[in-house]
Amino acid sequence: MKLLLDTHVLIWSQEAVASLGPKTQRLLTDDRHELVVSAVSTLEIARLVHLGRLTLKLPIESWTSQAIAALQARSLPVDDSVAREAYALPGEFHKDPADRLLVATARLERATLVTADDAILSYRHVRTRDARA
Question: Which candidate among 61, 79, 110, 111 keeps its CA 20 to 30 Å from the CA of 104?
Answer without folding.
Answer: 61
